[in-house]
Specification:
heterodimer; A: mainly alpha; 6 helices; B: mainly alpha
């Protein structure tokens, strides 16, 4: 449960962060100019900082999960965010998502689901057996 | 070509980063508190862990390549393409972290590859 809560918040933060960063970087580079000018413009754009902050939240929660769970569990689990990201690109950034890309996202998620099933059981059982496993919900 | 190179840096940097960060976080130990003062002392141990710092360096390389490629390519193409890192990271988890790769996990990894191929179609 602790792992699920931490990873769901992580995935949502990552998807939002990616949307803000894409929006910001597209507008930062639309004005042209050399690398230094672009870098300065990126560093002074609040949306770049918001996107980066959200990805830091993701990273902190992801690292925290890795302190008690296997990498081979946490990594596939967070991949459920893939479809969320493609959907976010479609709905918030008006990107064209072809049928092949939708299908690819679904297949990736299926594969990731299988991978997580293969190792998650022992990890989650071991984690849930610990008395302090539910501390996050307090 | 530039897009492929950048995605390669995103993938390889991300995988190396994941392996080192897992190593570091396992050395730090399970985080099982939401108490702010305890979290700060844990954070201090995390940011002084050598494996974790090496992992962050690789992640940073991966992140800046990701930022660069997002300035000219679609998020909904770049992000699924980086899922190649699942295969590379799984190999890293097996050979460096000694995690077990079962048949089910292998099947899942093949599906991920298929998904990546689908997304790479023009």
């Amino acid at each position: 449960m602790k792992t699920a809560v931490v990873l769901v918040i992580a995935i949502v933060a990552q998807a939002l962060g990616n949307v803000y960063l894409t929006k910001a970087m597209k507008s930062v580079t639309s004005g042209g100019g050399d690398v230094l000018t672009t870098a300065m413009r990126a560093a002074s754009d609040p949306m770049v900082w918001l996107g980066t902050a959200l990805l830091i939240v993701f990273f902190a929660l992801y690292s925290a999960a890795l302190s008690w769970a296997d990498l081979s569990f946490v990594l596939p689990a967070t991949a459920f965010g893939y479809v969320l990201n493609v959907a976010a690109g479609h709905y918030f950034l008006n990107e064209t998502v072809t049928h092949a890309r939708w299908a690819g996202s679904v297949v990736i998620t299926l594969g990731v689901f299988l991978v997580s099933r293969s190792g998650a059981r022992t990890v989650t059982q071991a984690a849930s057996l610990r008395p302090d496993a539910s501390e996050i919900s307090r | 070509m530039m897009t492929a190179l950048m995605i390669a840096i995103v993938v390889l940097g991300g995988s190396a980063g994941d392996v080192f960060i897992t190593k570091g976080m396992k050395q730090v130990g399970e985080i099982s508190t939401v108490h702010p003062r305890k979290l700060i002392s844990i954070a201090a141990r995390v940011v002084t862990n050598v494996s974790f710092l090496i992992g962050v360096f690789f992640m940073a390389c991966s992140f800046f390549a990701f930022l660069a490629v997002l300035s000219w390519a679609d998020l909904s193409f770049v992000l699924p393409a980086t899922s190649l890192s699942f295969v590379i990271t799984t190999l890293g988890a097996k050979f460096i972290l000694n995690e077990q790769i079962t048949r089910l996990r292998l099947a899942g990894t093949v599906l991920v590859c298929l998904g990546v191929a689908l997304i790479s179609l023009p």
